[in-house]
Amino acid sequence: MLWSDPENKPPKELRDAQAMMRRAGVLVALAMLVAMYVLGIR
């Protein structure tokens, strides 16, 4: 991308949805790590 290219930002709703999906993915990954840790202890 060149500095002179027009901004190609998605609409706010799409950006919010992407941020929410990113947070959900992090939470799922953390939950899986905790579950594997707990199952590994037993």
Helix content: over 70%
Give the overall form: elongated
Q: What Rg, in angstroms, do the CA atoms define?
A: 18 Å
Instruction: Report the sheet-strand fraction.
Output: under 5%
Q: What would you call the structural class?
A: mainly alpha
Low-confidence stretches: none
**Tally of DSSP helical segments:** 1
Mean pLDDT: 87
Number of strands: 0
What does the model show?
- By secondary structure, the protein is mainly α.
- It is 71% helix and 0% strand.
- It has one helix and no strands.
- The protein has one helix at 12-41.
- The longest helix has 30 residues, at 12-41.
- It is elongated.
- The mean pLDDT is 87.
- The chain crosses the membrane at residues 20-39.
- InterPro entries: MmpB-like.
- Keywords: Membrane, Transmembrane, Transmembrane helix.
Give a concise summary.
InterPro entries: MmpB-like. With 42 residues, this protein is mainly α.
Q: Secondary-structure blueprint of this entry?
A:
Elements: H1 12-41
